Amino acid sequence: CGVFGILAPGEAVAKLTYFGLFALQHRGQESAGIAVLDGDRLTMHKDMGLVSQVFDEALLNELQGQLAVGHTRYSTTGSSRKVNAQPVVSRTRLGPVVLAHNGNLVNAAQLREELLAREHTLLATTDSEEIVHAIGEAVDDGKGWVEGTVHALKRCRGAFSLVIGTPAGLMGTRDANGVRPLVIGTLKGRYVLASETCALSIIGAKYLRDVEPGELVFITESGLESHHWAKPEPRMCIFEMIYFARPDSRVNAESLYTYRERLGEILAQEAPVEADVVIPVPDSGTPAAIGYARASGILFQQGLIKNHYVGRTFIQPTQTMREAGIKMKLNPLPDVIEGKRIVIVDDSIVRGTTSRKIVQALRDSGAREVHMRISSPPVTHPCFYGIDTDSQDQLIAATKSVDEIARHIEVDSLAYLSVEGMLKATRTDGQGFCTACFTGDYPIPIPDAIRRTKLV
Ligand code: 5GP
Ligand code: SF4
Ligand code: MG
What are 328-331's contacts with CB under 8 Å, separation 24+? Predict the structure, then answer.
């Protein structure tokens, strides 16, 4: 998911949030929402669809206030329905609290039972609603906003980057492992919170720093207060670095574009091949392909053209079209492909279905040889911390060896980046990352009941 928040009296906060969410659209395409607080008066609009489908100018004009919180949803828990759209709200003795969540709790079931036992009505089926109710409960028990929020956070296990709006100010916080990103920006002396720095650039805000793992920032008109509520043990999601976040975002001040190019360079050293042309699977494979081409000295060309307008809400193609392959999204360019020995570079293979179709399309366009290079290690384990990977039995690398995968997707050769290569390419030499989907080394313990839902 994508989260965004701003406190800026006198500015059009809903409109700024709209543009922030627009830049975070890649983090979730199912639903979008903006909540605005004018003192303790709450106005909110949320619905299914893309940011540009959910909002128009007239709606944004109705969202008046000093503080705004926004969300784009990508479901990891709870079904894809309007009732699960965010921000989520709780009414407290101190006024409303609105919350936008990116991540996934691993103790959601337990938290839900505890809240229901205290007669909370939970409308949604998401862990995010539980967090906002836990905050509401603590505040109604007599705690202040920061104290109450910290109390609620300590009941949560898992991954959570949160933006929280209250009549007293705006809060941003990350779990002790800082699995999901959250950054602070400044705009004309005001503070902005966003999942990624690309949402700061789009509104002209400057990147100040990341919210630290286990930190809560409380932003009021008098400035920014920092509270360290949990001992930080950084385990940033490395899949954000490799694939999920936008390449024009920075994580821990590191450019993801540059990181991905470096992955491609290391991949070229680890898995060289004689070929005529390096082609990316756009857009996610492009930086790594540029790095691979540079390090190998092989020509870089675009051989697959992407149609950027194919979204998740796209009308399903006919069976005849489906049989014709994936060409609606990626169309091969025979001019580049015909008669060539091709290195095709992508960021990851999850199920292997896309990769198989791409290889087929390259062969249909006359490729002489197809060598696939992947700028991450094999995905062998599911994610429980907010990336919607399939259950383990759907992950092709969980059950097949690299050779078997190569046969399945019908390439002449296949190679993945090593775990060492992936870690070496970070500026911290791999310190402070979650790598569980590549290694099975889960930094946050997962209760058995949850583990069984995805792990075989
Ligand atoms: P596959 O061959 O596994 O079917 O697809 C691999 C492609 O899926 C890669 O191009 C990669 O960029 C993309 N991908 C990787 N992770 C995810 C994900 O979590 N969600 C979606 N929609 N695509 C992903
Ligand atoms: Fe990221 Fe993979 Fe860890 Fe999930 S399991 S947080 S996708 S590195
Ligand atoms: Mg891709």
Answer: 330/281, 330/282, 330/304, 330/305, 330/306, 330/358, 330/361, 331/304, 331/305, 331/307
